[in-house]
Design brief:
- InterPro entries: Fido (IPR003812), Fido-like_dom_sf (IPR036597).
- This is Fido domain-containing protein.
- It comes from Dactylosporangium siamense.
- Pfam families: Fic.
- By secondary structure, this protein is mainly alpha-helical.
- The protein folds into 2 domains: 256 residues, no CATH class; 196 residues, Fido-like domain (Fic-like fold), CATH 1.10.3290.
- The chain contains 19 helices and 4 strands.
- It has a two-stranded antiparallel ribbon with strand order 1-2. A two-stranded antiparallel sheet has the order 3-4.
- A hairpin with a 5-residue loop joins strand 1 and strand 2.
- It is globular.
Length: 466
């Protein structure tokens, strides 16, 4: 069952009885035969264990199938990475996928049960939100304001509840379509309507800014009512860090003047930390010089892209462009990255971001200033420095793209393409890359950055051995 195919009838709590007190017992009774597989552990000698990884994901799929058969199709959302509150009120995501969340058998089954309970709570919260916003007024201008407020509230609710970079946007799209259904908006083109009004405005790996939330809400309201938005609307531009702000139109003018500004969240700048790490890491000494060619019949980066749930075809097409560029001539530049990224995202342009970016559910910040594009271009040029060994150059440019976060979306794929280009330009094509590309590397640790370089060197050596 694919979560994107769920209708409101599939998930409406009123149509699907559920006893939260028995969930833990049910999960244990339904757990796939054979037990919980071993957790992910990278072995530098054996490298990435594909069979073990396949076993973990197969276990997750079997667990999902069992839950769907027992509870109904709504239960497939248990792994949508929607957060829930712990006993002390903190918001946490209990299931982050088979690779990260499979630990001990007891902890793993508790995580599945907790994730299912959080998903059900989210659906029940949507019922309450739908009830608060319905019925919608019929007078066009009043209906426009109501639709705008409802769409913004739904986006804010979903993004705030999600602690996962890769899942909040699809669930947000679903929630909007479900509300259209409950509000009895006529027509069978809800998918097209939602995509036309919010598609491309939000991205999974960057927390949405208030202006983006407002724009999407306005677009949907205009499409449904035919009313042109007023040019003097002043929606908040600081969401989600201190939303609503004093400029929010839902707060009366007098209250806006009296209300003190909320201080911004004190979240460290991961990009600034990375730039310091980049300067202090011993790139020239942590890995030896390697000459190509090194390759087998397998292409590890291509295999990782091919396994993507979404956008695999576009990612592979971009990889073919990077491969062709590496076989030609010329340096790695932002213009080259942008060409590949347009293919990855299926867009006409992929410019350098112009605002600060957020990731990891708002836990990481990548600040912006006007000199970033030129600084990033200089970092890309260093990927051809012959004084630095190839493994270090490839690792450094990979981390540069991750932490400069140049694009609004798809930076992990862009980083993989940059790594691929730098290696392939020297005749190296890794036959195993999943362990590198599927690991989250810290921005703050010079020894960790050096470890990435040594890891790339190991992957090159293993490719050569095979």
């Amino acid at each position: 069952m694919v979560i994107e195919s769920l209708t409101w009838a599939d998930v409406d709590p009123a149509r699907h009885p559920f006893d939260p007190d028995t969930v833990h017992d049910v999960v244990r009774a339904l757990a796939p035969a054979g037990g919980v597989p071993a957790p992910y552990r990278y072995d530098p000698v054996r490298g990435y264990d594909r069979a073990a990884a396949d076993a973990r994901w197969a276990w997750q799929r079997a667990m999902e199938q069992a839950l769907v058969e027992h509870y109904g199709s709504w239960a497939c959302g248990w792994n949508a990475q929607m957060g829930g509150h712990t006993a002390d009120g903190a918001l946490t995501v209990r299931w982050n996928g088979a690779q990260d969340s499979i630990t001990t058998p007891e902890e793993t089954l508790d995580a599945v049960a907790g994730a299912l309970l959080d998903w059900r709570t989210f659906l029940e919260d949507l019922v309450g939100m739908f009830a608060r916003h319905l019925p919608l007024p019929t007078e066009p201008h009043a209906a426009f304001a109501a639709w705008e407020a409802t769409a913004a509230a739904l986006v804010a609710t979903v993004a705030a509840r999600s602690g996962a970079d890769e899942h909040w946007y699809p669930v947000c799209t679903l929630a909007l379509k479900w509300f259209l259904d409950v509000a009895e908006v006529p027509g069978d083109d809800h998918d097209v309507l939602v995509d036309a009004t919010i598609g491309g405005k939000f991205f999974s790996s960057v927390s949405p800014q208030g202006a983006e939330v407002a724009d999407g809400a306005e677009s949907l309201a205009a499409a449904l009512t035919g009313i042109t938005p007023r040019p003097d609307d002043a929606w908040p531009d600081t969401w989600p860090q201190d939303w609503p702000s004093r400029r929010s139109t839902e707060i009366p003018t007098a209250a806006r003047r009296a209300q003190p500004a909320a201080p911004p969240a004190a979240i460290p700048d991961s990009l600034a930390a990375w730039r310091q790490v980049r300067q202090s890491a011993r790139w020239a000494h942590v890995a030896g010089h390697v000459d190509g060619p090194a390759g087998t019949a397998r292409d590890g980066v291509a295999e990782v892209f091919a396994r993507r749930k979404y956008g695999a075809g576009r990612a592979l097409a971009a990889l073919r462009l990077a491969r062709a560029d590496a076989a030609g001539s010329g340096p790695l530049t932002f213009a080259r990255l942008e060409t590949w990224q347009r293919e990855v995202l299926g867009v006409a342009a992929a410019p350098f971001r112009t605002t600060s970016a957020w990731a990891r559910g708002g836990r990481e910040r990548y600040a912006y200033d006007s000199e970033l594009p030129s600084a990033f271009e200089a970092c890309l040029a260093e990927s051809a420095d012959p004084a630095v060994p190839l493994p270090s150059r490839a690792a450094r440019v990979y981390l540069d793209v991750l932490f400069f976060h140049p694009f609004a979306d798809g930076n992990a794929r862009s980083a993989a393409l940059a790594l691929y280009f730098v290696l392939a330009r020297d005749g190296v094509v890794l036959d195993r890359a999943a362990a590198l590309l599927m690991t989250r590397w810290p921005a703050t640790d010079p020894r960790g950055a050096e470890g990435v370089a040594r890891f790339v060197a190991t992957l090159i050596e293993r490719t050569r051995d095979r």
